[in-house]
Amino acid sequence: MDNKLKKFELMEKITRELEDLKNSQTAIVQKIGKIEVDNIELENKTLERILPDVHQNVADNLDKIAEILSSFEESKDDFGKKNNVDALREQEAIREATEGAK
User: Fold this and answer.
1) Is residue 11 predicted with pLDDT exceeding 80?
2) Which of 35, 41, 62, 87 has a Cα-to-Cα distance from 48 of 20 to 30 A?
3) What burial class does residue 85 get, using C-beta atoms within 10 Å of its C-beta: 0-12 exposed, 13-18 middle, 19+ buried?
4) Quick check: 47 and 39 in contact, CB under 8 A?
5) Does residue 37 contact residue 47 with C-beta atoms inside 8 Å?
6) Domain segments of the chain: what residues?
């Protein structure tokens, strides 16, 4: 397999992992928000004191992950176009089919 195709496939894998990380961080922000809302009624001082900072830190990380994902996807797409990854995939599929027929 072509090294450029391997590199592109690794970039696709990292993109999926970053998307998963973004989704996980989004879920955490939502869960913290729900705890904060529930605590309005409960009025636990520890939760009132600490959760806003935790919420902000996770939200900041989510913003950073979204920024990384956007930039990385752009780099991946540029790499794919520059190296004509679709054609490399077609060549790889033909090679595998030819070898499999032998």
Assistant:
1) yes
2) 62
3) buried
4) yes
5) no
6) 3-101
